[in-house]
Design brief:
With 84 residues, this protein is an all-beta fold. It has one domain: Macroglobulin (MG2) domain (Immunoglobulin-like, Sandwich), CATH 2.60.40. 17% of the residues are buried. Helices cover 0% and strands 54% of the residues. The mean pLDDT is 86.
Amino acid sequence: MFVKLKSNTFIDVLTLDLVANEKTPIHAVLKNEEGCECSRLETKVPKEGSTVTWKGLNDLPYGKYTLELSQGDDALTLQLVKRI
């Protein structure tokens, strides 16, 4: 696993703990329950153990989301909940 989430619930930001140390950027796509893309993030991994804060999610409606993460050939899908 190249990314760990601090929590599977969020309000207005997601905090990603990057555990990989590669030159390949991490791509993240947040989708709503219907599968529509709501937000996208691409970031390089500056060093192992760094943290990235994904801001700007406060305009999304409350509900369930799918977070699709990929780095090179590795992929990960997580279920998240935006709450009050």
